[in-house]
Design a protein that fits this description.
By secondary structure, the chain is of the alpha+beta class. The protein has eleven helices and five strands, in the order αβββββαααααααααα. A hairpin with an 8-residue loop joins strand 2 and strand 3.
Length: about 375
Amino acid sequence: MFSNMKLNKIFLCFLALFIFGLSFNNLFAQEIHDQYQGTFKAKIVDIIGEEEIKIGWSDNISIYKNLEVKILGGPQKNQTATFKSDFPEIEEGDVVFLNYLVDISGIERYSIVNIDRTFQIYLFFALFIFVIIIFGGFQGLRSLVALLGSFLAIFYILIPGILAGWNPLVASFLVASAILFAAIFFTHGFNRESLVAYVGTMISVGITGVLAWYAVGASNLSGFSDEAAVFLNFNTGGELDFSGLLLAAIIIGILGVLDDIAVTQSAVVTELFNSNKKISRKEVYKRAMRVGKEHVGALVNTLVLAYTGTALPLLLLFNIYDYEFTTVINMEIFASEIIRTIIGSIGLVMTVPIVTSLAVFYLKDYKSKGGHSHSHGHSHSH
């Protein structure tokens, strides 16, 4: 009797496990991964109404709008859908990007991820090109070609290379050399001035790279200072070196200002030599350094203000919570920007004497294309 009851219990357990196994397999047969169907454009046809909804356990209220949209792409193209959204600053007639999801039970869900700004972006980009060409002429056009080359180097060499496992520091240095080559030679011509500026800038980039490597290591910066890094790490299986990515970002981020100051110093030295044939190298170096110091002061200020402006919302948030100053600067998101600004500024400062020294040595008897006109201008003023 006891043995039969025991056998019945065992049978029932196996039956339950079998039924659970079938149910478990059926869940996966519904392809859980198909919840996300894609991101498609949609036009807001009507805002039916608004309602206030309390967020979680807090007292904060979020305003949700009841939307009717016409889907403009994907499998549901030209169909309409209604849903609630708390996405800010949307109005009737706006075109938005929708995430389209279907959950396991077959219920369709929509969420707005962004407003379509394609027209505005293209408009201001066209205005940017127009202004550059109108004021810069042929040289402005060449600078746009150099800019295009820089983006191509970043998107088709640096990014795929890092994702393929290249060392980020080495990759960024190689791409930096290509970007600077395009920026300097294609914009300012293949001449001795450009060569001096290029060589001097590459020396500065090398020194800056070594300093950045030491600073990132000594400061124990992981590179995980924002959500983008976390998502990237998740999607690449943790195979990327994020401290190395921070180094690459520091190097790529300072190229523009290094290019600016290097080309300026080369041009200043050339003009000083052309303005007075009897002037000594020592005097040229002294005068060019004075210009360089003024330029560096302005650029360092630009760097600091640019990074501060980017982090302004976060600074306001920390100010609301009344964190201690030392607490704030030790948070990686701020520490990374502080190190980035300091290393970039050091690179700027070093570029001035390096490029000026090279220019004084190699540009003594060099005449730029505009050298004669500048020389005449100075002679008249005297």
